[in-house]
Amino acid sequence: xxxxxxxxxxxxxxxxxxxxxxxxxxxxxxxxxxxxxxxxxxxxxxxxxxxxxxxxxxxxxxxxxxxxxxxxxxxxxxxxxxxxxxxxxxxxxxxxxxxxxxxxxxxxxxxxxxxxxxxxxxxxxxxxxxxxxxxxxxxxxxxxxxxxxxxxxxxxxxxxxxxxxxxxxxxxxxxxxxxxxxxxxxxxxxxxxxxxxxxxxxxxxxxxxxxxxxxxxxxxxxxxxxxxxxxxxxxxxxxxxxxxxxxxxxxxxxxxxx
Length: 258
Description:
Blueprint: E1 2-13, E2 17-21, E3 31-43, E4 47-50, E5 57-77, H1 97-100, H2 115-122, H3 127-141, E6 143-144, H4 155-161, E7 163-164, H5 166-179, E8 184-190, E9 200-207, E10 210-214, E11 226-231, H6 234-237, E12 240-243, E13 246-257
Parallel strand pairs: 6-7
Antiparallel strand pairs: 1-5, 1-13, 2-5, 2-12, 3-5, 4-5, 8-9, 8-11, 9-10
């Protein structure tokens, strides 16, 4: 599938500040960036740095009063969607070193708090079948409510409130999977058909020797997702981190078939 991505960000700053952008589609084996262009106004020189786990890149910039960012890309996605239930979990001692860190709790995914619930609710399942059951539970029991969470909301908060946005769904699934002793990480991405159109967040789980995308919101087909970056939780995948104060003027994200 070939997708066209068009992003516009416009922020007014309270004072000169450093910015860390993460809006560019990652170059990976299952998604080919045919062409892309990142343009900024109101910034100094741009400095790219490699993203978490070598997936994608971030870009440092500095702005004084207002920053405007335009990103455009055409990406070819070639990723068959596997049947999760057919995938086995890898023995812990055989996990690659780069994957082991995704077994542990993180700021927004306090997986240790979910261990008793996961054991009771999903203890009779294993591997991909357990992951699929967890994703189905999240989709059926958490309401997608724009504005229901903020920058402090954790997976535990979302579990109690039974509502959230895409990052909350991803955090909850990741926390549950880690509580079941399987590696999981959060993915910042683009996907067609997401309503309202916006940056999207999904989960990625390590099964059968590789990472596999899962969208617990059900809004995006994993076969059509374009990864931007990955990490422990939303801390690592923020599309824009402002080291200072900023006010949103305009934000627009469009992902369509090219």
